[in-house]
Design brief:
By secondary structure, the protein is mainly α. The chain has three helices and no strands.
């Protein structure tokens, strides 16, 4: 006796799963931290109530923003002091800019 209604059952492979993908693509990296630095990051993470990964990302972002601020300050001060021709002042400015940019 032939069946007029045929039903097909889909396997698990055919089912569509909802995907919760973030709208931004984020890269993942593994970093090694010295124990003392890891302790500092852990304390910071606890202070701001976040994970270690998010704390590391925040600290990197803060450091990069600080570097950009130092570069802007460098060029602003350089432009302001370009007109000075005093050799003693130039040596002092070189040392000051070296400290500003390199942190030494």
């Amino acid at each position: 006796m032939p069946h007029t209604d045929t039903t097909t059952k889909r396997g698990r492979r055919d089912e569509q799963k909802p995907r919760n993908r973030p709208s931004k693509v984020e890269s993942r990296y593994t970093v090694g931290l010295a124990p003392s630095l890891a302790n500092q990051v852990a304390r910071y993470a606890k202070t701001v109530d976040t994970s270690m990964s998010k704390a590391i990302a925040a600290l990197v972002r803060i450091g990069l923003e600080g570097q950009e601020d130092r570069k802007r300050d460098f060029f602003r001060r350089l432009k302001a002091n370009l007109a000075d021709d005093d050799p003693g002042q130039q040596d002092r400015l070189v040392d000051e800019f070296r400290t500003l940019i390199l942190g030494r």
